[in-house]
């Protein structure tokens, strides 16, 4: 139970995140950058993260660092292997030179993985058809689950070797661990299905493996974060009460230094996370027939439109804040100082920003510079036209800024 007093915390003050000290409490959210055509770091990716680091964030998060080649949502994403370490090291050194910390988001996409571009079989709790890749994901065996768990540990070790300050374990958006948590997707009848305790075994297992790997790997200690769905936003998906229980178990397990709360399903309801515009035609343009025809005809059912308002996930996140003691990172609709102050007053230790930093990587420096003038309005219009650009090169179509989108 959280019993912290309601005292004002300056969002721009230094903060401890596990063993790491951040220069402020603002984190650039994990996003897909579309900057790694060979699944390795490029100068484009380095610049992509250097901009918000120079712009004032406390920590930037690299996405998506898959733990295995078959765990990518597309074949041009980074997967953690020794060949990636030199580039990742150059990336972390560049961010550190700007005074910011850097985190690697690690995970396995599970049924969201594109087995066609990955040229590897996707995994899911049960056999599952992905309409975007037009391929089936296979039902994960117990050996598959063990291999994925160890792959998370290996990814954490490689992140340490590459100079990262933190890893963020992806337990959201119906990626593999999240799909096991979902009663809608997970129809297994073995030890990994049925009760929430069984469905949570994969999520808890990978976090435990990552923590063990971090604690045993040399002298450098890094922070361990998890990104957890509060709700899938669909009937029969992960409900808030079950997610809260999972979060309590993760806290009791002692493997996390903080938890970032998210929402929505990449499989059935992605806009539940983003809110604002739903650019269906622009999404369709990235695919060939018949997929593009299907998106144009029925895309409004998949890309459902939800109205945008500031801090739109805070009400649900406050239920977790009331029950948990661990630090919580608030995500969703944070674009200005007033919203950050609201989050701090509500007891959240950190805030995460995505689209606002995509539109304006130096937004935080501008907020600090204009404090005496009152409110500083973000240039982000929440049109979400940035989302379809993840298939080419992620950028804001309003400002042209080359930054990102939450994955």
Structure notes:
This protein has 407 residues and is an alpha/beta fold. 35% of the residues lie in helices and 16% in strands. The protein has 15 helices and 13 strands. It has helices at residues 43-54, 85-97, 115-118, 142-161, 176-181, 196-199, 201-216, 240-253, 271-274, 280-284, 291-302, 314-323, 337-345, 355-359, 363-369; strands at residues 15-17, 20-22, 26-32, 59-66, 101-107, 123-124, 128-130, 135-139, 166-171, 223-231, 258-263, 328-331, 350-353. The strands form 3 sheets. The protein has an 8-stranded parallel beta barrel, surrounded by 7 helices. A 3-stranded mixed β-sheet has the order 6-8-7. Strand 12, helix 13 and strand 13 (350-353) form a beta-alpha-beta unit. Helix 1 (43-54) runs parallel beside helix 2 (85-97) and helix 8 packs across helix 12. The radius of gyration is 19 Å and the shape is globular. 53% of the residues are buried.
Task: Tag the structure with descriptive keywords.
407 residues; alpha/beta; eight-stranded parallel barrel; three-stranded mixed β-sheet; 35% helix; globular
Distance N to C terminus: 30 Å
Structural class, from secondary structure content? alpha/beta
Could you tell me the strand content as a percent range?
Answer: 15-25%
**Biggest β-sheet: count, sense, barrel?**
8 strands, parallel, barrel
Order of SSEs, N→C? EEEHEHEHEEEHEHHHEHEHHHHEHEHH
Sequence stretches where pLDDT stays below 50 over 5 or more residues: none
What Rg is obtained from the alpha carbons, in whole angstroms?
19 Å
**If strands are numbered along the chain, what order do they take across the biggest sheet?**
3-4-5-9-10-11-12-13
> How many beta-strand segments?
13
Residue share in helices? 25-40%
User: Number of DSSP helices?
Assistant: 15
Q: Which shape, going by the Cα principal axes?
A: globular
């Amino acid at each position: 139970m959280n019993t912290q007093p309601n005292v004002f915390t300056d969002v721009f003050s230094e903060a401890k995140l596990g063993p790491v000290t951040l220069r402020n409490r603002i984190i650039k959210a994990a996003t897909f950058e579309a900057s790694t055509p060979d699944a390795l770091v490029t100068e484009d990716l380095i610049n992509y993260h250097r901009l918000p680091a120079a712009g004032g964030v406390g920590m930037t998060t690299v996405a998506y660092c898959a733990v295995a080649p078959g765990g990518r949502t597309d074949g041009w994403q980074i997967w953690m292997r020794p060949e990636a370490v030199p580039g990742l090291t150059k990336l972390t050194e560049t961010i550190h030179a700007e005074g910011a910390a850097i985190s690697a988001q690690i995970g396995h996409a599970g049924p969201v993985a594109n087995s066609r571009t990955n040229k590897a079989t996707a995994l899911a709790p049960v056999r599952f058809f992905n309409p975007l890749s037009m391929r089936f994901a296979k039902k994960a065996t117990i050996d598959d689950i063990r291999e994925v768990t160890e792959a998370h540990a290996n990814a954490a070790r490689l992140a340490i070797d590459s100079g990262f300050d933190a890893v963020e374990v992806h337990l959201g958006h119906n990626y593999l661990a999240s799909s096991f948590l979902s009663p809608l997707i997970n129809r297994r009848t073995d030890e990994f299905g049925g009760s929430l305790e069984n469905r949570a075994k994969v999520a808890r297992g990978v976090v435990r493996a990552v923590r063990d790997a971090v604690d045993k790997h040399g002298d450098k200690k890094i922070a361990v974060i998890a990104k957890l769905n509060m709700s899938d936003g669909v009937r029969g998906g992960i409900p808030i009460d079950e997610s809260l229980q999972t979060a309590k178990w993760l806290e009791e397990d002692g493997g996390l230094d903080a938890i970032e709360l998210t929402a929505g399903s990449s499989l059935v309801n992605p806009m539940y996370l983003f809110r604002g515009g739903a650019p269906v035609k622009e999404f369709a343009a990235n695919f060939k027939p018949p997929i593009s025809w299907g998106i144009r005809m029925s895309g409004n059912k998949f890309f459902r439109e939800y109205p945008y308002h500031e801090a739109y996930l805070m009400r649900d996140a406050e239920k977790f804040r009331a029950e948990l003691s661990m630090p919580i990172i608030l995500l969703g609709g944070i674009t200005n100082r007033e919203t950050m102050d609201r989050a701090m007053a509500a007891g959240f230790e950190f805030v995460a920003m995505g689209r606002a930093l995509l539109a304006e990587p130096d937004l935080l420096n501008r907020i600090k510079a204009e404090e005496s003038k009152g409110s500083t309005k973000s240039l982000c219009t929440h049109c979400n036209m940035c989302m379809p650009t993840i298939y080419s090169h992620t950028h804001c179509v309003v400002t042209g800024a080359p930054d990102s989108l939450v994955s």
